[in-house]
Amino acid sequence: MSDLVGIVLVSHSFELAHGLAALASQVAGDEVHVEPAGGGPDGTLGTTGDVVWNAISRADCGQGVVVLADLGSSVLTVRHLLEEGRGNGHIRLVDAPFVEGAIAAAVMSSAGQDLEEVARAAEEARGASKF
């Protein structure tokens, strides 16, 4: 088990969450636990609390978890879980662009940065210029 910050990617789409998790994992390496949480029952679009919480549990290796969400109700699903008192302050839902934030968080985690630095990198990715 690594002692790096875990990352959870919450999307309405199973494919989007899993594809981005694969990309972030390739960039960060196998030590960073990047977990997808996407899609509803039977392959439909949506998010469910159980799927999200299971991904958070898998990603948490003791240094905390940064959670990125794609759209409105996925944010609400994560907020609901955190309002239930889960996570004990070791889970950060960040206001970050989904793709760029996930990559920034994964890179910072792989460099051994703490929870606050990984969360900050994800949020600061909003200002990243592509050209």
Name the strands of the widest sheet in spatial order.
2-1-3-4
Shape: globular
* Helical percentage: 40-55%
- Quick check: average pLDDT? 93
Q: Based on helices, strands and strand pairing, what is the structural class?
A: alpha/beta
- Summed up, the helix count is 5
Strand count, sense and closure of the main sheet?
4 strands, parallel
Distance between the termini: 38 Å
Order of helices and strands: EHEHEHEHH
CA-based gyration radius: 13 Å
The number of strands is: 4
Q: From the coordinates shown, what is the CATH architecture?
A: 3-Layer(aba) Sandwich
CATH superfamily: Phosphotransferase system, mannose-type IIA component
Unreliable segments of 5+ consecutive residues: none
Tell me the CATH topology: Rossmann fold
What is the CATH first-level class name?
Alpha Beta
Please give the domain count: 1
Question: Which band does the percent of strand residues land in?
Answer: 5-15%
In short:
It contains 5 helices and 4 strands, in the order βαβαβαβαα.
Write up what this structure looks like.
With 131 residues, this protein is an alpha/beta fold. The chain has a single domain (6-126), classed as Phosphotransferase system, mannose-type IIA component (Rossmann fold). The protein is 47% helix and 15% strand. A 4-stranded parallel sheet has the order 2-1-3-4, with helices on both faces. Helix 1 (14-28) links the parallel strand 1 and strand 2. The protein is globular and about 35 Å long.
